[in-house]
Specification:
The protein is built from 49 helices and nine strands. By secondary structure, the chain is mostly helical. Among the domains are: 70 residues, no CATH class; 145 residues; 203 residues, Serine Threonine Protein Phosphatase 5, Tetratricopeptide repeat (Alpha Horseshoe); 156 residues, SPOUT methyltransferase, trefoil knot domain (Alpha/beta knot, 3-Layer(aba) Sandwich), CATH 3.40.1280. A seven-stranded parallel beta sheet has the order 5-4-3-8-6-9-7. Strands 1-2 form a two-stranded antiparallel sheet. Helix 45 links the parallel strand 3 and strand 4. Helix 2 runs parallel beside helix 4, helix 25 crosses helix 30 and helix 30 runs parallel beside helix 32. The protein starts with a helix and ends with a helix. About 9% of the residues have low confidence. Keywords: Methyltransferase, Transferase.
Amino acid sequence: MQNSSDSGLDRLLAHVPNDERRTTLREIASTLDSESDIVLAKWIISKLEGDADATTEEYVLAFLLRLYNDNPEAVSTLCAESDHISKCMLESVAVDLEACLDRLHAINDPVTTTNGEQDDGKITVGVQHEVESNMIDKAVKCLHFLVQILDPKSKAGTNFLDERVQELLFKALSCSRPQIVGNAKHMITRWLSSTTFNEKDPEVLISIRDRTWAWISEKQESRFSLHYPIIFLLWYYGIDFWAANPGEFQSLLSSDTYWTCLQNALVEGDTEVRRSVLLIIRKTVHLASEHNVVVDNGHFQISPQIKAEVKGSFERFCTIFETIVLGRQIASGISTKEMGEENVRKLNALHEQYGKLITGGQPLQTKAQPHWSRIEDMRLDIQSTKSACLKGRGLNHACHALQQMLDLPALQASAEELLEVLEAIWEQIEIQDYPKAALIGLPSIYLHLKCVQRSSANEELQMKLSFFVTEYRKLVAGRIYTWTPLMVALRQAIIAYPDFALVADLESIVKDTVRSPPSPKPEFIMDLAVANQLASFSSETSTLTYEHYYGKNEGVGWAAFFDLLNSIIQLDPELNRNLLEELLQPWMQQRIPPTIVNKWKTTEWVQALLILLQGRSAVEGHDGAKTYTQKIMYLLSVEPLPRYRFLFEWMICLLIQQHEDLMDLVVEVLSSIDHHGNPKYLSSIVRVAVTIVCSKLGTEDAAEKVAQRLTGLAASSKIIIRHEAQWALPTFWRHAQAQDWKTITENSALIGLLDYMHSLERTIVPSAERENSRFNFDTDQTMSTLLCGSYLALEPPGKPQLKLGDYQRLMETEKGSTLKHHQDTKASLPWGTEPRLPAHASYKDLPSEKKQPANEDLIALQTKGTSHLSGTIADIKSKRHNSTLLVVGSLVDNPYNLGGLSRVSEIFGAAALYVASTKVLTHKDFESVAVSSHLHFDVRDLPVADMIDFFTMMRLKGYAIVGIEQTDRSKILGQADTVLPKKTILVLGAEKEGMPATILGECDLLVEIPQRGSTRSMNVQTAASCVLFDYCRQHT
């Protein structure tokens, strides 16, 4: 159907006499000027079909050529209206593209001026760059237009690609400008992938096939060029052309060239090339099987009788090659044992298939690797071969040779020669997609002590080493096996040359590591499990351990990291101070009160703080140490998690170790009569005081002061303080007896209290948490306790990053080394011996006879809720996440009542509590009733004005709005027909006014609590607890 514009123009043309119409069209065509004339041009083209006029066509073509620079899509659409116009445009654009490519090819060396003046030369070079940029832009536009006009998938696309245009595309693929290569690759691969199914002329197909294969055959000889990967990409898309004629396809597969190209690429190509080759092999074998091709040569054998077997064999080979050579991880969902057995089978299959495909049944012939005895020889070889000697296996050979040359007593190479070799190796590392074997060995080369020593006098080499550390660090996130070689080499370099810490930016490395500790990805853990299983199968596979594949494990890297931190105070005291301040700042500025789960907090962060503080405390004056003590005591007062609290307690102890009068700060807190404000903090200070008194630092005078306060704390109304003081007394008493402190051992009040304590079950059988938090300041103050001690079993749950054996393996790497590493035991923590193992037994595992009291007439002991002992914080968080109970207290405005509402909502498992403003969380009345309940679940803002919108949104998610109010329609709680929905939003009214009519109207269900007394109503938090209990009863 014609549009209205075409119809109108046709009617106007109908009034023109027949003999004048050609002239009229010519005159109209001469006026075509801008994009607004596109519709008119389209109409003119439609009138030229069957009655072409050369002059009119020239006007139209001139218009299209002006237009295609700005709007190639519109021009390609117009070309679809006429084959003749399309071919003319194609010819014109091809001429432009060829001119651009020739001009770019000619621009290789800087242009010199005829008069030789320096300024003119600079201007000419600037003009040259401008011309080059213009040529690239124009060539890209030409290619964009060709995509539109030649792509059969586009609306304007056609199905012809003459020989000249195809040769131009090949020429563009060979260009050194990545913008042009990328567009040419995109265009020709899209066209090739669809032409096989659209082109009907067999001669066209044969022509395309022959030209494509000729180009591939020619270019594959220039191995290791930047265009090498494109060859195989084009090859992959060209297979369909060749398979379209089974006879020709069979002839192609029978040639040696087809298979030797693939063999060379698999052996010497980089990862991208190898992946493309595997795709080609899969597609070739599949199409050969599908077309019943018969081939029998030294590289490939297939026939209809054996095609299923051959296809399966090559599929296995490709999968094995991906898994082992390319490092593709094994899919999940397979048991560890199955994965190990499968790997053994794959290894055997790979050995067999490799001989057939890669070597053609003959031993693989490779060039002999050059023998470099000097770095200068390696540099000259790299220059003469344009880095070809570093391709494929040559990279590993070069790294190994360079390592050996650096290890020699005397290094015969200048810093400049060393820099050139290191740059060439890193370039190949990037080109070859970071091959594992070479990558693992790089830190020991770049950070070799001789490289670091030479860099101190050569700024360019120093910048290269800094660049290496920065770039190599980025690889750790995805390749965990790079962590250990980097840290081991970095530690040695900085201990030997402390100034190198600034070059390597050690401050950033420490901060990034403790904030986001490197960890293996799940697929890597799975691969490690496979390696361990594989090593256990037989003596032949016993060497295929983690170290065989990846070198020393991550624990050795962590040992190097923490040992370096432990040495910083001797290497650079100023860096120690800066790091300590930087790492402390986020903790000091954290939001108060902190939430239970903080993603930014890590155990490694606090461990690093302790190591740095140990070093700093040894050189810090009294006032500075007091400031640090006050900071750590503040962090201890706000920290909710036991593991971090343990480390903060340790920090306070080591500061007191250096300045004993700081113990007065601890005694001052113990003297507090406010047991309700922060009972966790007070219980932690009890542990600090007892730890100091029961160490070599303890004195009888200090013990007497602590004993006076412990006696009172043992009777505290807060159970956490009472229990902590009672737990501390037996240890405190034993130490006093050993030291013969008469003021303690003859105290009758303490004697009576101890007799009572010894009768309690929890004193006889300590809990696992109590055992894991034990700390002897005289013997446990070691790196092994800090990094792999039993306290790591405390919340939050986690595993240590290393074992003591990892430090011992680190020390083995220094055997025979001249590296001097003297640590000041006063400023640095000793590594120590194996720490105490964590305790896991819980009270429920005790024999029944120990659980039951011997005397049935014993009075029941007071206990508190123990739901917090039923699982880890992660368990409690998971249960809370699955809860579908929400509580809305936005109408309640009394902070005291809101605190009680928070407490009962958290106890009965609500997912969240909504209040009018979360500012109430810091009100003293709220905190006095809520205790720490608001830290264990979400308390969110919900202003009264937003309540109705909130109810509407949540109702769409399946929630029911349940109000607690006495009305004539309320259901009585506890009766059989009063059923609270699983997804409930419980709404509380205001203290005096109750629930307003607008909110009552929104409720899907109203409930009230049955009363027997005469008081009008319950307190809001009491009413909420009744309904919450009944909800839990119904949905247990």
